[in-house]
């Protein structure tokens, strides 16, 4: 039996202090976008026949003159957004994250990124937890693709409160931004009204000395759960909500790596090219420490219920705990070798 | 199936039932024992969200056990929410991101011509789906290369996800568009087995160009409260709605075995 199999996971689960379930991040987006629309006539919203799902429909209802349903034609929608932005508008375009990024990539590359235009891309149903619809609707490459575009800011908020606080900053940011939202109701990590979020700055949710957990999106709650479990077992964790995946908060990353000497990243995304890869690049260049990633291990998911999929593809606090045990083993070995 | 799964797209599945029934029952040559038989006719469901209707046809003809239909969309099953060619025999193309199936169909048709095989490739598209630019790129290619072994069906049920196609981004006059792209066009009632059969026979006879059958359909066909009610584009019926629907459809004899 491996040590992992000997572990009593039920007992560990009993120690979790779960957050209350809040709204979906896409709901917070829809509401705040519509509110912004009242003060900012230059906001124009387009959707690719998914307005009811992405929640851009809330804006559409209040400002029908500034909303255009582009139909099932995402590449065209991205091109239109480029033209609108060139004329001084702030276009918000939305679809499922997969279609929004994959189907428009060349248009985004030339018409948005290279053209330095402030188009705001809002992809809902990010990751695999949209569930039963399956792979064609899931997005596990969107962060990597969006982050690869020069100048593109990439934001993956964890809950409704942080989403609500970040959307006005996405609007105000002078460049292009990709904001990934989710389909499901998710744990509300922050108190309603909390506005302590800054684009480009990670937020430290817990301070500890043994290992730093750096997460984005739905994995932030899981990272906190992992920290709760580990704390009771004598491992103290720093937890960072890295809602802005790019440009990543390098200063904070190097700081927590220095303080803890070990880092674990967690994201609802393919292991290559996402948060983990970006953190790895930053730490490799600045302050290498033992590092582990919790992410999809070079695989697509499949149809299923969200919670089942999280278990099946290793996106829960359990995998974070296991990754911490691994990374601490490496840290200890490296210290004893020194 | 969709009721049991608790999610899915009943409206767009019901609108293409007769087309699939006609194709599988009377026209297509296929062998469930040998799903990779090189001379089989191809059916590519470009509007992948309608796949429950296709699963039903495939199960009926023995590609997999009918009981498996109840595992739709579950982690312990292989019947994905959208078609997956690697998992399910009889599924020719993985679709679900709209707009891609016609191009894949061209690949099959072109390959058939290169290999001097006589199979036909059928592709089913949604009327909202043909808003995708790729569909028209494919339309140009197929006519430029005179792919007369390729037949597209457009399931014109009048609705897409957010609203009526006419309200979001009109595709009309659809027959004229395909005609001007160099396709032979036929417009039919997509729920009339006779008209579908006749149109397929017509398509088999078209020479020198690809053919398209514009099928006028009703989204949610067969269930009174789903017909033309786009609320059922992407949600499963409740228990009560399910009971109603099954009554209206005249519950299938094997239904009891399923439940
Ligand atoms: C590229 C892409 N964009 C958006 C979607 C989401 N979506 C799924 S079904 C649908 C509407 C499809 O309408 P239509 O083609 O008319 O199909 P039907 O009415 O037969 O359901 C949309 C927008 C998708 N699957 N793929
Ligand atoms: Mg339709």
Strand and helix layout:
The complex is a heterodimer of chains A (338) and B (259).
Chain A: H1 3-6, H2 9-14, H3 25-39, E1 43-47, H4 51-54, H5 57-62, E2 67-69, H6 74-86, E3 90-96, H7 97-102, H8 105-114, E4 120-124, H9 142-148, E5 153-155, H10 160-172, E6 177-180, E7 203-206, E8 211-215, H11 219-232, E9 237-241, E10 244-246, H12 250-260, E11 263-270, H13 275-286, E12 291-296, H14 306-312, H15 317-337
Parallel strand pairs in A: 1-2, 1-3, 3-4, 4-6, 5-6, 8-9, 8-11, 11-12
Antiparallel strand pairs in A: 5-10, 7-9
Helix pairs in contact in A: 3-10, 6-8, 11-15, 12-13
Chain B: H1 2-5, H2 10-14, H3 17-27, E1 42-45, H4 51-60, H5 101-114, E2 121-126, H6 133-144, E3 150-156, H7 165-168, H8 174-180, E4 184-189, H9 193-205, E5 211-216, H10 239-249, H11 255-258
Parallel strand pairs in B: 1-2, 2-3, 3-5, 4-5
Helix pairs in contact in B: 3-9, 5-6
Magnesium ion (MG) binds next to loops of chain B.
CATH architecture of the largest domain in chain A: 3-Layer(aba) Sandwich
Q: What is the name of the CATH superfamily of chain B?
A: Thiamin diphosphate (ThDP)-binding fold, Pyr/PP domains
- Beta-strand content estimate of chain B: 5-15%
Number of domains of chain B: 1
Strand order of the largest sheet of chain A: 2-1-3-4-6-5-10
SSE string of chain A, helix = H, strand = E? HHHEHHEHEHHEHEHEEEHEEHEHEHH
* Proportion of residues in β-strands of chain A: 15-25%
Between the first and last Cα atoms of chain B, what is the distance in angstroms?
10 Å
Bound molecules: thiamine diphosphate, magnesium ion
Q: What is the residue-mean pLDDT of chain A, rounded to a whole number? A: 97
The number of strands of chain B is: 5
Largest sheet of chain B: 5 strands, parallel
Estimate the helix proportion of chain B, in percent. Answer: 25-40%
Q: Globular, elongated, flat, extended or rod-shaped: what is the shape of chain A?
A: globular
CATH topology of the largest domain in chain A: Rossmann fold
């Amino acid at each position: 039996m491996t040590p992992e199999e000997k572990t009593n996971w039920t007992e560990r689960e009993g120690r979790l202090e779960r957050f209350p379930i809040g709204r979906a991040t896409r709901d917070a987006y829809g509401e705040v976008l519509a509110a912004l629309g009242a003060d900012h006539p230059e906001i124009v919203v387009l959707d690719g026949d998914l307005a009811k799902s992405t929640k851009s429909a809330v804006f559409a209802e209040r400002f029908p003159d500034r909303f255009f349903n582009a139909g099932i034609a995402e590449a065209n929608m991205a091109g239109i957004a480029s033209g609108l932005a060139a004329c001084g508008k702030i276009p918000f375009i939305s679809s499922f994250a997969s279609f929004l990024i994959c189907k428009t990539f060349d248009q985004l590359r030339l018409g948005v990124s290279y053209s330095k235009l402030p188009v705001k891309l809002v992809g809902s149903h990010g990751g695999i937890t949209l569930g039963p619809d399956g792979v064609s609707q899931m997005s596990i490459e969107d962060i990597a693709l969006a982050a690869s575009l020069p100048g593109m800011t990439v934001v993956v908020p964890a809950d409704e409160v942080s989403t609500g606080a970040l959307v006005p900053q996405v609007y105000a940011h002078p460049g292009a931004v990709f904001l990934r939202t989710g389909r499901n109701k998710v744990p509300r990590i922050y108190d309603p009204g909390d506005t302590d979020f800054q684009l480009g700055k990670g937020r430290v949710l817990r301070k500890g000395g043994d290992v730093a957990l750096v997460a984005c999106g739905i994995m932030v709650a899981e990272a906190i759960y992992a920290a709760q479990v580990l704390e009771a077992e004598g491992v103290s964790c720093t937890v960072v909500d890295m809602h802005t995946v790019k440009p990543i908060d390098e200063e904070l990353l190097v700081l927590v790596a220095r303080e803890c000497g070990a880092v674990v990243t967690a994201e609802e995304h393919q292991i290559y090219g996402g948060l983990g890869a970006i953190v790895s690049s930053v730490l490799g260049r600045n302050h290498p420490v033992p590092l582990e990633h919790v992410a999809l291990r070079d695989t697509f998911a499949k149809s299923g219920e969200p919670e089942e999929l999280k278990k099946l593809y290793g996106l829960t606090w359990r995998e974070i705990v296991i990754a911490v045990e691994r990374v601490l083993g490496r840290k200890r070995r490296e210290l004893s070798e020194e | 199936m969709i009721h049991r799964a608790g999610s899915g797209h009943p409206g767009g599945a019901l609108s293409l039932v007769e087309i699939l029934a006609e194709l599988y029952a009377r026209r297509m040559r296929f062998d469930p024992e040998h799903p990779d038989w090189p001379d089989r006719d191809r059916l590519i469901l470009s509007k992948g969200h309608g796949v429950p209707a296709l699963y039903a046809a495939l199960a009926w003809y023995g590609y997999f056990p009918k009981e498996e239909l109840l595992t739709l969309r579950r982690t312990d099953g292989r019947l994905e929410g959208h078609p997956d060619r690697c998992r399910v025999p009889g599924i020719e193309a993985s679709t679900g991101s709209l707009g891609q199936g016609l191009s894949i169909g061209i690949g099959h048709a072109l390959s058939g011509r290169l290999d001097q095989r006589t199979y036909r490739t059928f592709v089913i598209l949604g009327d909202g789906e043909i808003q995708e630019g790729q569909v028209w790129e494919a339309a140009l290619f197929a006519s430029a290369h005179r792919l007369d072994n390729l037949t597209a069906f457009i399931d014109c049920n009048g609705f897409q996800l957010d609203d009526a196609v006419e309200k979001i981004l009109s595709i009309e006059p659809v027959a004229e568009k395909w005609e001007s792209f160099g396709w032979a066009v036929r417009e039919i009632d997509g729920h009339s087995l006779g008209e579908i059969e006749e149109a397929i026979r017509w398509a088999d006879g078209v020479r020198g160009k690809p053919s398209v059958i514009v099928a006028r359909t009703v989204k949610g066909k067969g269930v009174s409260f789903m017909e033309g009610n786009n609320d059922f584009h992407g949600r499963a019926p409740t228990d009560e709605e399910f009971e109603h629907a099954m009554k209206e459809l005249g519950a299938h004899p094997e239904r009891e075995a399923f439940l």
